[in-house]
Every structure is written in C-alpha cells, then in structure tokens.
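Wed. Picked up where I left off yesterday with Putative glycogen debranching enzyme GlgX. The coffee machine is broken again, so keeping this brief.
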Amino acid sequence: MILQNNQTDLVLVPAGQLKPLDTICGFQVRPGFFLDFGATVIPGGVNFTIQSHKATSCELLLFHREAEEPFAVLPFPDNYRIGFCYSMIVFGLDIEEFEYAYRLDGPYDEKMGLRFDRTKVLLDPYARAVTGQSHWGHKNNPQHGYRARVVHSNFDWGQQRHTSIPMEDLIIYELHVRGYTKDASSGVKHPGTFDGLKEKIPYLKGLGVNAVELMPVFEFDEMRDARLIDENLLLDFWGYNPVSFFAPNTSYSSSKEYNREGMELKSLIKELHDQNMEVILDVVFNHTAEGNEFGPSFSFKGFDNQIYYMLTPDGHYYNFSGCGNTLNCNHPVVQNMILDCLRYWVIEYRVDGFRFDLASILGRNEDGTPLHQPPLLRSLAFDSILGNVKLIAEAWDAGGLYQVGSFPSWKRWAEWNGRYRDDMRRFLKGDDFLSQAAARRITGSPDLYDPVFRGRNASVNFLTCHDGFTLYDLYSYNEKHNEANGWGNTDGADDNNSWNCGVEGDTTDPSVLALRRKMMMNACAVLMCSRGTPMFLAGDEFADTRYGNNNPYCQDNLISWLDWSLLEKNRALYEFFRYMIHFRKAHACIRKDLEPSYLGFPSMSLHGLTPWKPDLPESSHTACVLFSGYDDSLHKEDLVFLAVNTHWCSAALTLPQLPDGYTWKIAVNTGDKKQQTFTDSEIPAAGSSVLLGERSVIVFVGERN
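Structure written out below (tokens, as returned):
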C-alpha cells in the first residue's frame, strides 16, 4: 500500500501498521491516500481526500448525526496537501457516529468564475451517501446544507457474475421507482421503494421484459423547488436534478440504512440478475441541482465552480441543459469524476448499463462548442471496467444540438432513436408521406446507423418514454393538458404527433375505445417487430394514463403513479404485449442477421401490397417487411412478414410466394375483432392474398408444412 508520509517521500506500509503522525483538535491524524477520493474506511480510521484547484485552505467538519453544529473542525495542514489534493487519515472514528462535510476558503470573483465562501458547508463530490434525504417530501433546513456518511462496502453478491445480454436481445422497460408502486393499487408491502419494486419482479418476469431502466436513483432533493399549486404540493418527482452522483436516493429505501446506504438497491439488483434481468440507470451528468448564479452553493460551486461548470466569459452559466447550469464534462477533472462514478456503480452495484440524459452535452467543449471526438465519450467507450456495460445516449440537449444518427460512438454507444419515435408516431396515426420513413425505421434505420460504422445495435427504438405522452394518452389526446403543473400549460412539448381517435380524453363511446385499443396494439406489434432494441414505458402494457399531462416531472400523485387496477380492466392489452414480447424472443430473424436463408430470401426486404415491390409512393399508408434467415439454434428457417396499414380503408395484400412445403400463417391480426393473437396450436393459415384491414397490423410466420 502506497502512503504519503509527513516528509513527503513515498513509503510502502502495510495498512494494519499505519501510525498517527500528528494531532489536530484532539484527533490523531496523518496524511492519507491522495488518489482515493471520497471517504474510505481503513483499519483504525477513515481516509478523507478531496481536490480543489483554487482553494487556499480546507477544513474537515465532523457532525454527530443530525446535529446543527460540528463537534470537530479539522483544518488540513499544508503538508497534507499535494498539488491540488487534500488528504487526511483520522484515526479512532466510528463511521456510525458521525457525518462529515467540508469548508473551503479561496478567492471570490464572479467574473472569473470563482465562488469560494469559507462559511458554506460543502458536500463531498464523491460522497457515497447524503444525510437528511431519507424522508420523502420533508423540507430540510437550507442553512444546514448537505452532509455525507461513510458507507460500508460489504454486500454479499454470492457467486453472481456479470453476464451481458446482447443489445439486440434486450427488451427495455423504463420505470420510475417511486411512481411504479406508490399507488395502493400496486398491492406491495413497501410502496414507492426499491423493495416495492422488488416485489414486482414476478410481474416483470411474467411480462417478459429482460432489462429495467430506472429513472434517476442518484441522490436528489425533491423539495428543492417545491410549490403549492391549487392546494397540491408539486415536487421534483422525476429526480433529474442531481445532488450527488455517487450516492443512491435514500428516500427510495423502505427503512433507514445508516452507513449501509444502497443495500436495498443492491438487493433489488441482485434479485433482478437472479431472474436474468439487467439494470440500466438513467444518469444525469449534464447539470446539477446548484442551478445558476441565483441557485444554492452546496458542493461543486464551492470546490471549483470554474472547473465543474461551463461559464461564459463574464462568469455566468451556460444553460445547455435547460436547468440553469451545464456540467463541464470534458474538463479533465470532471471527466475523471464521471469515469470514477460509473466505475463505482458497476463495481459496487453491478449495474449493467447507463442511459445518459441529454448526452450531447457530454460532447461539448468548455466553451460549449461540439467536439468532433469528445474525450469523455471516447474514454467511456474504451474503459476496461465499463467494457461490457451498455452505453445509451439521449443524443440531443436543450441547447439545440441534435445528434440522432451522428452521436460519437466508436461502435460502443447506442442511442435513443428520436427519429423512430417521431416518424413512427406520425405513420401509425395515418399521416401522409411517411411510408418510406417507416420502412427505414422498422429495418433498423440504416439511413442513420450505417452497419459498418455504427454496428447493428445502435438504435434503441421507442414510441413512449417518461418524457411525453403514455401510449394510452398518445391515442386519447390531440393536445397536452399540463395545467396542473402551474405554468399555464406552457411547459412540455407541443409536437406530440398524437391522435385522440375522435374524442379528447375520457369517453364511454365503445367505438372510440375499441379504436384506441387497436392503435395501442398496432404500436406494440410494430415496435416488437422492428430491428433495433425496443423500449417502452412502464404501464403502457395496461393503458396507464397521465390524463394528457406530457410533462409530469413535478406530479407526485395519481397523475404519475401507476394505476394497477387498469391491469385487470385492460387485461387483453396486457396479454397482447406479453404475446408480442415472447414472439420477438422466439424469432431471432427480427432481432439480427442470421445465417443466409436456404430459401433464397435476404435478411430483410421491403414489400408493398404486391410482393417485392415496395409500395412507397407519397400517397401510401402501408409498409411491409420480410425478415428471413436460418436459425442455427433451432435448426430451421425463420420467416416473419410484417404488414402495416395505417389508412382508414382496408387493402388487398398479396404475400411473397413461399417454396413448396411452406405456408404463411397468421400470428397476429389487430384487425380481427374476435381474436388478435394466435398460439402455435391454433395459428390459422393464410392464402396467397389476404385483406389487410383499416388501421391494422398483420404478422405472418412462414412455417414448414
């Protein structure tokens, strides 16, 4: 073990033989491990290490649990600093008996971006746990600041080893930990928590999804911008306002986890892994909850404001995030912090992947200009610890940078395919001039993701996500209805590409309800039969609604909580989702290129109402795709023919001719009013031509007689 001693030369000392060299405020101390940022337990004490390029002094504050004032203030001596790092081992500390924070002194010059204030209590940027955040909806004393705890790292993962499901085989299910089980209809013992989600794992297993994407679970303060609107308390419900990148949100735990923060989350991840499901975290490295010059200073501003944030020449904050500030991701200090953070979540929590919110910010230079080969993105792509981890970019930001199809990737980065969402929403509701675009999206968006330069797994296809309408609302509302957010319905996107099927919002009209159900089935069928990784929003499978609110980031109530009573009410839709998920898993030809078909068909081919003649004029509302290949694992030809008609009139469809001994059979027909899906034992055969109903999807499989 390398240790820096009091004479600043390097010596090798076994950890158990470390001896104090000084006494500060009655505590025995010595210089610590300068490369180990954060607070780390070592035999006999705790190592504290932080960095600041412009600070002139640093103090370590030790508090008794929830105390207002520190019981000890330990200034770092000059010889406990090397370069810009301060490091100290404090002996005799019991980690369960204290909380800690820092105070730094240094120059204050707003135009130079320097905001040091020795009166501010600062949270360690590498804090593994943040105190005072475990009571959801409880307003903390703003003068108290945030403090950190030292965390035990002794979770027993057993013999579990990291296994990576290929991107093309993933079916991603995006959910909000609190909103998923908070409503009483969820029926769980620990609503709104990691344990509550754990109770729903059998449901997830039955549905068939094999990856859950958790909306932010890093520590955030839901009360930071709390507002009272029409007697409803609005909070930062979604959590896209990080306080600490290394700490789990303790209010998502069902019980207090003093100095063991993260144990419940680890238990959830372990159980998901045991059920062959991966965990993807939605991470927010584009901004922090400190906001702009009018926001609080509780961590990064006080350590090195001019390093952690992108600043204008006069010291103001660039706002490419739309949230007040922008993290300076390609500064070496910030880049290293993000790398350290992601490695930590992979090592300590065994996370399988990350979805990066507003990821285009991660590719901006310190002055905000886009970089050709951003060093952070490149480092993440080639990092050894992150080697098997999924990296998924939301390839745009709030500053107008839109990189869908052009995000720097090194064949490692996948993208939320916003073009898939927009083009397919318009096509599915019957807009003109979309057949050609729809055909491209269904076949993996080759116009965006060249297989040679981007690989085959770059596109994450989705029609819904947390941001925007649910699937039910997509076919129930023409306009957003965000009045409850308190901004006069001005927030949220206006280009939803939705259709209310003739009635805005709730209705009892059976014909409208039937059409909405069919439209949702169409969307599910096409999503599951598209090349690329499918993702959908939790609750879409049973028509959960947000009552037309397409931006419920602040709604900790029935608007955002899943209504599980709808599962029984809309059981047919749930069963259709379940069927389509298992259908996709059963047909590898949809997901990837197989061995060439012995029948002579290409891996993917476009068709129209007439075989081999893509019917893609501007007036067309149909798109047909044939997936084909020889599946070695099943020792058989795999043939799937997807036919989509989004027009309000039916159309005669002629099927591609199969060789003797093969027959087309109907696996799915959303236009069949009696039965939309068919099992292997009852699957009906199709003739050489069929009637493709209005606003309908038919999925055929080629079977050997």
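Quick read: Residues 167-586 form a domain with the TIM Barrel fold (CATH 3.20.20.80).
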